[in-house]
Amino acid sequence: MDLNVWDKCNNRCLMCTNPDWPWPAWDGSCDYSYPAIIKRLEKAKEEIKLDDSIYLTGGEPTLHPRFLGILEYVSRHFPEQRVKLLTNGRKFFYKDFAQKVLATNNNFDICVSIYGPNVKIHDAITRSGGSFEQTTKGLENLLAYKKGGHIFDIRFVISQLSYKHINQFLKMVKQRFPLIDRVILIFWEAEAQAVKNLEAVKVDYSQVRPYLEKSYPLLKGIKEIRFYHFPLCTLSEKFWPYLWRTLPDKEVDFVKACQECNYKKHCLGIHKGYLEYIGAKEFTPVKKHLEVEKTGDTYRPIGRVGRVGR
Hints:
By secondary structure, the chain is an alpha/beta fold. Helix 1 (34-43) packs parallel to helix 3. The strands form 3 sheets. An 8-stranded parallel beta sheet has the order 1-2-3-4-5-6-7-8, covered by helices on one side. It has 2 domains: 2-228, Aldolase class I (TIM Barrel, Alpha-Beta Barrel), CATH 3.20.20; 252-310, no CATH class. It has 11 helices and 12 strands. Helix 7 links the parallel strand 5 (151-158) and strand 6.
């Protein structure tokens, strides 16, 4: 369950998947006042309790004037659900805010977006000067005040603006944030602002692949790595255990070549926006025979992968 807390942001990311402001919440209303959000939560409480988590999203959720109150309400009324915050992390630059947020809930994930290894690249993507400094300092504050039940992610969106810097980014993460719980590399989605800025954002899987292959040794030593929005054929099989199904069925498709793939049932598929704006020429069926360990997890279907006979 996603709760859009706030429809505004202090970054202006070129590849953002949010629509133009203002946009309605799940009930069709553009009212993001505290009473309106509490009313939405009360109306959907039975549905929320059927899920294992609730995502606080935006815009930038932490900018809501009553963010701490919303977080306290969610934590108190949905104690069985893991609370997951998607944030640019900038407000955690303020230590007192970081401390107050982390004191609210011990059943808490915070997912912080960092789009480059340095000020120049990150701030060019966010189009917001000072954002890299605030985000990275904010993450340092979170890690300093972390409790046992907290899990912290770093999310990196791969686009034309960032794909050549994956290696530098992973080195920066390992040097500055060695205690981070999870690093997530996300292939860009052809939606909303990314489509409006398509010429600056678009990159295809075949362009990205050599940079990821080169970066593979850097994955060692990171507690957990995930790749979002990658069809199996876009990376060599050594990456498959890290590939997650992250898009709903209505947003993906399979092309003709997919029908000949030995591993289609384990594959995410291809984002429909990608097929519309980039095309399907690069997708080829994987026909070699591999020993694929099935996890039984819908979201992460593949465990270990090996060659037949080894």
